Amino acid sequence: MSHPNINELLDQIQGSLHADQAKSRFFHIWKTEEPLTCKGVCFPRTTEQVATILTWCHKNDQKVIVHGGLTNLVGATKANPDQLVVSLEKMNAIEAVDTQTRTVTAQAGAILENVLTAAEKEDLFLPLSFGAKGSAQVGGVVSTNAGGLRVFRYGMTRSWVLGLEVVLPDGTIIENLKTLRKDNSGIDLKQLFIGAEGILGVVTKVVFRLIEKPQTRLSAILTTNQFKNVLQTMRYFDQHLGPRLTGFELLWKNTYSTITAEETPYKSPIQKPDNYVIFVEMLGKNVERDSNDLQDACAHSFEHEWISDAAFFDSASEQEECWKIREDVALLEQNAKHNQHYDISIPIDRIGEIIDSIVQNLKNLKGVLDVYPFGHVADGNIHLIVGKENNSEILTQNINDIVYQPLQEIKGSISAEHGIGIDKKPYLHLSRTKPEMELMKAIKLLLDPKNILNPARIIN
Amino acid sequence: MSHPNINELLDQIQGSLHADQAKSRFFHIWKTEEPLTCKGVCFPRTTEQVATILTWCHKNDQKVIVHGGLTNLVGATKANPDQLVVSLEKMNAIEAVDTQTRTVTAQAGAILENVLTAAEKEDLFLPLSFGAKGSAQVGGVVSTNAGGLRVFRYGMTRSWVLGLEVVLPDGTIIENLKTLRKDNSGIDLKQLFIGAEGILGVVTKVVFRLIEKPQTRLSAILTTNQFKNVLQTMRYFDQHLGPRLTGFELLWKNTYSTITAEETPYKSPIQKPDNYVIFVEMLGKNVERDSNDLQDACAHSFEHEWISDAAFFDSASEQEECWKIREDVALLEQNAKHNQHYDISIPIDRIGEIIDSIVQNLKNLKGVLDVYPFGHVADGNIHLIVGKENNSEILTQNINDIVYQPLQEIKGSISAEHGIGIDKKPYLHLSRTKPEMELMKAIKLLLDPKNILNPARIIN
User: What is the average per-residue pLDDT within A312-319?
Assistant: First the structure.
């Protein structure tokens, strides 16, 4: 389907171009060599331009794919030749860091890391932290309800959004850019768009709340042989350190060994890693006090034989090294050919057995080469990177089945933080009931009756 | 409009009765002498019975008003003679406190305080705290997205809901009772029902997340002459005490003086209260350390002349007394004849001037007798109790206008935590834009096309 007057639209939005020209001249975030398949690319500079684009597309049945920082992992930004890409990258202003209301207001295309830095300049803190923060744009961060390393203490992105401006699929602007911590004046519409992966509207601006910046950071690596000890240690650390405990992450032994193997840039700070390696982060304000408390918690865990070894880090450089071991997912991906990345949620007391059983079943499947489990154990969110012999559809499906099938019975989730996109859509019914999926469809149809915005994501 | 076969429905839901019989035999929460006006009252005992009721009502165009603990302040539970009341009070089981996933699952009719107590028995903590917790039911708490005394640190009710079961107006059960901290599997539908005041569905069960129970509590009362010093002190306390600062509340001088006047049960712990009296709560685990830090923060504020006096409380009984001064709203209401209660949100840096101006304008209005401002200053949420000569509609409207009109320009809210209900509906347009209100209506129409559930609340 082609619309002869799409050029009029593209002309109207200053700076918009067709895909082939866009890549070289305007499209800074398009990093892969592969050309972008689409009908054209728009680079709106204002909310009104986003509204103009969507009004036109709604009227002319033109399907639209929204692009932020392209860091999603579920195929959510794939486009095809009859779809128009709307990239928010030119709407990247950080409009205000307000030290009185302790909020930051940013346009959707602002890079998360720039927002974090702007806040920190005013001794304020937005605790969102994940690997892609250097390229993820806040519009996408909100639309994905991104998680990361500190959810356990600080919650997902949703917990930090005070205000939102969204353009609906028909071009209507829903503006609610308040800096209020409390607002119960009717249905809280912004909640509908947070984590909706852009299928209900295009996020154009965000107000995040901020907190006081912690003044000190400490880290530790612990190891233990049994999963039940991981949970025991976690609860004790949480009781003993209180809200200063901000990260409690886990690598299974083979994942840890792969990252700290001789040929990698990383050296294990633990002599003899046991079955589980725990990464602890502690944010506070008094380094001596925090350090004593952290060491006390480790000593207590050691005495009770919950852990078999521990290493502490207080210098910034040491901690950076330590957390790279946890965060260098790219190294795992290099190691695991034709890999698939999973991102599941499991009720926390069931993690040990469920992951053991998934790993065992994967290893028994012909074609699977590597299985690397790791993740946010304190949130019940475990990632798996699975390497395999080839990219055949049947092998992929068999692996998906092994990973996803146990989740329905235990009320887990097929996506803790990455979202559904296109890739996980066939498995959504394992996480959500039929009435839930029907309601999602009804809401989509209400807001986007012509199904023009990010079509075929999450639901059909 | 009458349905001859409503008795069949009432028979089907065991224990349901007509209103006149209900009051004496089953309706424990109906405390006022005034009879309940309605067609009948249902007391469902299961989610399926709620579904049966709504299916029947949807089919037969029977309007339904949902009753929880009847603690709302916005007329949300008023019924008229052709409406059927559905009271959740028999669905009051606390189904599970899970120490592994650190969650509590409760039926909608469970009293909040019972849920808090059940959690505390397992050394776990749900930080929701407000005056009505001894009678508010969790279904209503969720439907109102209740706030209270610790929102500043811990967020509103929304922040604590992990799972929800809701019956839609047509009887469909939406079950999502997960204990997961992270679940990005599609649109997060439960967010739609939190704070929607029951117009989109009846909440039947809730899963709350819990945290470790703090082991110590300290309180202080401070006083200062200038509003800017309130904010300065707050930020310093927040920096100095970190996440242990869990409450920072404010009484304007005349409110404080009224509560601590000679004829009341309360004695001011401060010799000479200045224009503003601040109440501080600190939750931690080491009473000596916390006490030193709290006193340091006060000393620092005193040296910088941000505050003019301070009193500390460490014993449980002293603290109880101290917080009663902050919480005895009933005493203010007794003092203020024909009173109206307001609950507004203001960007935090504007609170001082806006409240001054509202109070001045109210005092200049003939018929206004008393104005008592107080509230959650750290959240930007100020309550006003206004006493007046009579209940005439025009006086009420004039007072509403004075309180609400300044809010639109400064992007405030006419309801920080109480909700809109019936009483604040005429003013919703001051807090929300026209497209927002249109979208609320569209969502209501989608879920409740026959407008049977809690009709005329929030929007028409």
Answer: 96
